[in-house]
Amino acid sequence: MRTEVDPQELGTPEDGWLPLNMPRNFGKGRSFVSGEPEGDRLRIHYFQRESDQVLCAKVWFGMGAEGPPGHAHGGSMAAVLDEAMGFAAWVAGHPVVAATITINFQKKLPLETVLFVETWVDRVDDRKVYTRGKIFHPGKDRIFADAEGLFIKQPIEHFGALGRTAKMREAQAEQEGCSDT
Fold first, then answer.
1. Which of 45, 70, 74, 137 is 20 to 30 A away from residue 176, measured at CA?
2. Does residue 46 contact residue 37 with C-beta atoms inside 8 Å?
3. Burial readout 66-104 (b: 16 or more C-beta within 10 A, e: otherwise)
């Protein structure tokens, strides 16, 4: 097993994937999952698949995420799925917080391996946003964990600087859309 991950490998999109920038800082802290891009715990890069708008990611679990010897702690896997499912909701236009997440651990996840994550909004019912996701090895048809989440929409103002950034991006996108006509 290798002890380092090539940043190029994580940051290079697959065919049909568009890069997404996940904010590294929230309020006074930073994201537990994506806040340390050079750390020894987790490294993740987000993308959106053009064909179906599914949120995709490449993730690496380092020694700082160890649970059983040589394998990722289930809590680190749950944290990745929680962040990715919430981000999928945000990318789909729903500012949310998690209410419940259910994780099904299917296989032990070996450390220091680059894996894929896919998450998407399954359905929306008023303020409730239901999501699904999985962590898997793309070449070996192996799913390590899958998840379902219930997220609750919140007023964008509740998110401070993150909400203001989202509003600015939304306004920019609307302006760009108007200039194309």
1. 45
2. no
3. bbeeebbbeebbbbbbbbbbbbbbbbbebbbebeebebe
> Which DSSP string do the residues of 46-95 spell out, in sequence order?
EEEETTT--EEEEEEE-GGGB-STTBB-HHHHHHHHHHHHHHHHHHTT--
Query: Using DSSP, how many helices (H) and how many strands (E) does the chain show?
Result: 3, 9
| Exposure b/e, 135-161, CB count within 10 A at least 16 = b | bbbeeeeeebbbbbbbbbbeeeeebee
Centroid of chain to Cα 152: 17
In degrees and rounded to multiples of 5, residue 178 shows phi and psi of -70, -35
| Residues 129 and 121: beta-carbon distance below 8 Å | yes
The verdict on pTM exceeding 0.70 is yes
CATH class of 7-179: alpha beta
